[in-house]
Write the structure tokens for this entry.
Amino acid sequence: MDGRVKLNCHRLKELRKSLGLSQEKLACACQDQALCVSIATLKRAECGSRVYYRTAGDLARFYQIPVAELLNEQSS
């Protein structure tokens, strides 16, 4: 295991769009909060590619939700 997980891409897009943010604006907002989430990482996550668990944690912190809510049920 390399510390990567697959996130629920539909939930990620839903959360981002509910705030009216583009991927670029979300990446900037994360950076403003000292969260390590790049636009490239967001694109990977929203396309269903695996990302580091740390990224999942940073996104969960940004959205103020539990990490489990972002994880794809089939990521194990």
In short: DSSP finds four helices and two strands in the chain.
